Amino acid sequence: MAKQRIFSIDALRGFSLLGILLMNILTFAYPYHIINPFEYFQHEDGALFKLSALFIIASFYPIFAFLFGYGLSMMYQNSIEKQIDYYPMIIRRLSFLLLLGVLHGIFIFYGDILATYAILGFIAIIFVKLKPQYALVAMTIGFSIFVLLFILPMILIQDVTQTENFVGLQELERVNNILASSDYLSMIGYNLKYFGTNIGSIIMVGPFTILPIMLFGIYAHQINWFKKIIMRKQFYTWLGLGIFILGLMVKMIQIVLVGSATSQLLSQMLGGPIVGMSYIIFFVLLCEDAKLKKVLAPMQYIGKLSLTTYISQSVICVVIFYGVGLNLYSKLPVSTIYLIAIGIYIVQLLVGYFYFKRFNQGPLEKLWRKVTYLK
């Protein structure tokens, strides 16, 4: 069962990186973060984006956050078995991740998630030594605060049906000129601005959105949740289906109320994690089927190379969309963009497969381990 559980975690992490790439590539290919995507994408692009909004956008970062918390708890258990002082070790690990995230956010991709997870990880590690109930209660309080202080006032104060563009045409033209210029220094300046904005947002709302998902990951490891899912297959199959339908209903709000900033926030911040949780349940159950396990097996290689994979995805996208001589920014339809993303992922699957025939760890993972354990 332990080996199966580890396989599920690695493969699930690899699966989440596919969804993250399908989300991130839109931010490389278009001025995604400053436009209303439901108005920007039209016809076939609009239809495909709506499908993405339902099944992909905002539903894979939660899986990664869940696994991050799960991993923090696993490392605490391992530190006990190996008689290692947990907090100095984990603080070094998170500090390295924070540094890598800042470098990634400034020099490659402003939408970095590593720095976010590192910052919130410093809070999450408080709960790994506590009883599972503490993580569960903190998670519940965090989400409740978010709904009461952020979501509810927005619904009550604003007109949720009002469509709006997020920025003016002048700002849109400025961003397009920067990203289409193949000027790397200009891109760094662009990253600095929006990466700083992202970090500010995380400090404001991260403890009430992403941190609760990490705490659920800690709780899941503490109670051996994956084993419970496997032991009660029928119950969790129906539960996962119910959660999935509920999540899609919430995410449908942004499609019904096209262009409303409030509806997008509501759909993504609430519906996204709900759909993500259903994906976790389904994936663990699928890993129990011998035939499906073989199909999913290649994803474990990307899962083991998650840090290297994530960074390399950004580097590849920078070269494709902003690179000198190969600047495809805002030139391709969404369908082609997604085909490129799937192509990148398939190449990473193949590289991961052959890489692990010779090596046990990815390059960034090996460096991260050296910093973590000082050996």
Task: Please describe what this structure looks like.
- The chain has 375 residues and is an all-alpha fold.
- The chain has one domain (2-373).
- 79% of the residues lie in helices and 0% in strands.
- It is built from 17 helices and no strands.
- It has helices at 2-29, 37-40, 43-55, 61-81, 86-107, 114-124, 132-157, 169-179, 184-222, 225-231, 233-256, 261-286, 290-296, 299-304, 306-322, 334-355, 363-373.
- α5 runs antiparallel to α9 and α11 runs antiparallel to α12 (261-286).
- The model is unreliable at 1-5 (pLDDT under 50).
- End-to-end distance: 30 Å
Q: What is the C-alpha radius of gyration, as a whole number of Å?
A: 20 Å
Q: What is the assembly state of the chains in this entry?
A: single chain
| Largest β sheet strand count, sense and barrel closure | none
The secondary-structure class comes to mainly alpha
Mean pLDDT over the full residue set = 90
Q: What order do the SSEs take from the amino end to the carboxyl end, as H and E?
A: HHHHHHHHHHHHHHHHH
Count the helices. How many?
Answer: 17
Low-confidence parts: 1-5
Number of strands: 0
